[in-house]
């Protein structure tokens, strides 16, 4: 009787140990699988470059390809010497013509005479005028209509804002200095005062920038409505810092135009503002999740991004990934 009880107890202990061994084996297999996945992620990070991921080329390590034939042989940066000139033949009809004459020989000081048979040497030069900005004063009489009793002043010319001391062309230059040239307020003020010779304050600069923005708004809304019409639209986004604050610059392109939109976030709500709620065209983008909720007639993932992902899979530690990349590349080729 004691032997039977001992055997039953021993069998129970073995059963418990067997279950413990099975649980530990499952845990080891799960950990081993996780380790392999972590090794794969580490392998991707070590070998990540602009050729197999979405990172910019500027983040690539400075390594020369082992194969010299694959090394880039692009044109060098900087000025190109000994190339055919574009302005050597002049600028067309000149605004001013000045004939430079001589009276005395620069060597001995004797009187000189022009050689009538020889052709003149002509050189056109583009130069700033002494006063690049003119000050206009508009005097507007008060008129009244004896027929209906209307009274008012004559209207200002196009490009002149009521009560503002700077014209439209000058405001356009200032707008470009700020948004195109990325000049600070202080540098814009210095340029206008010391180069153009016009006194100005930063408050007036702010008004000029605001007028510049408002004048472009109707055109921007026109092209924004165009980009929301059916058609192929390639959309992307990137970071854009203003005074140390990170924004997102969205871009949507077609065959004819390119529309930019500055937004505070990278969410799908910003994409909806760019393309509209019910976009009926073809949306081409990368694999970022913000593009998934957007309504579109059809969607196409960027082939360049897909090719980079396949390039990364070709160097994977797993045979299945490499085989998948090979088969997909065959279908795409």
Q: Overview of this structure, please?
A:
By secondary structure, the protein is an alpha/beta fold. Among the domains are: 140-216, no CATH class; 228-299; 302-333, no CATH class. 38% of the residues lie in helices and 12% in strands. The chain contains seven helices and seven strands. It has a five-stranded mixed β-sheet. Helix 2 crosses helix 4. The termini are far apart. 8% of the residues are buried. The mean pLDDT is 86.
Which strand-content bin applies to the residues?
5-15%
Major beta sheet, strand line-up:
5-4-3-6-7
**Mean pLDDT figure:** 86
Instruction: Give the total of beta strands.
Output: 7
Q: What global shape is seen?
A: elongated
Keywords for this structure?
elongated; 333 residues; two-stranded antiparallel ribbon; 5-stranded mixed β-sheet
Topology of this protein?
Elements: H1 2-46, E1 142-144, E2 151-153, H2 168-179, H3 185-195, H4 202-227, E3 232-242, E4 245-253, E5 258-263, H5 268-275, E6 282-285, E7 298-301, H6 303-314, H7 319-332
Parallel strand pairs: 3-6, 6-7
Antiparallel strand pairs: 1-2, 3-4, 4-5
In short:
The protein is of the alpha/beta class. The chain contains 7 helices and 7 strands. Helix 2 packs across helix 4 and helix 6 runs antiparallel to helix 7 (319-332).
């Amino acid at each position: 009787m004691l032997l039977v009880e001992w055997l039953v107890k021993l069998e129970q202990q073995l059963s418990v140990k067997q279950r413990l061994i099975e649980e530990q084996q499952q845990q080891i297999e799960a950990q081993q699988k996780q380790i392999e996945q972590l090794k794969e992620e580490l392998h991707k990070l070590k070998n990540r470059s602009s050729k197999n991921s979405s990172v910019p080329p500027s983040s690539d390590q400075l390594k020369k390809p082992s194969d010299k034939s694959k090394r880039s042989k692009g044109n060098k940066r900087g000025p190109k010497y000994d190339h055919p000139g574009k302005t050597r033949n002049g600028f067309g009809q000149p605004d001013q013509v000045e004939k430079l004459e001589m009276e005395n020989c620069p060597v001995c000081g004797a009187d000189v005479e022009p050689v009538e048979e020889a052709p003149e040497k002509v050189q056109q030069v583009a130069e700033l005028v002494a006063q690049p900005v003119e000050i206009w004063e508009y005097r507007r009489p008060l008129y009244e209509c004896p027929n209906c009793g209307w009274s008012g002043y004559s209207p200002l010319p196009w490009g002149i804002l009521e009560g503002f001391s700077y014209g439209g062309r000058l405001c356009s230059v200032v707008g470009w200095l700020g948004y195109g040239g990325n000049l600070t307020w202080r540098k814009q003020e210095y340029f206008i005062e010391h180069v153009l010779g016009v006194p100005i304050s930063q408050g007036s600069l702010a008004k000029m920038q605001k007028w510049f923005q408002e004048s472009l708004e109707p055109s921007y809304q026109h092209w924004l409505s165009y980009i929301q019409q059916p058609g192929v639209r390639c959309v992307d986004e990137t970071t854009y810092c203003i005074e140390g604050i990170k924004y997102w610059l969205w871009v949507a392109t077609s065959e004819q135009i390119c529309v930019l939109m500055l937004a505070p976030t990278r969410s799908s709500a910003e994409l909806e503002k760019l393309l509209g709620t019910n976009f009926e065209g073809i949306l081409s983008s990368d694999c970022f999740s913000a593009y998934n909720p957007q309504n579109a007639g059809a969607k196409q993932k960027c082939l360049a991004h897909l090719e980079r992902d396949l390039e990364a899979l070709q160097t994977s530690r797993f045979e299945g990934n490499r085989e998948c990349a090979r088969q997909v590349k065959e279908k795409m080729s």
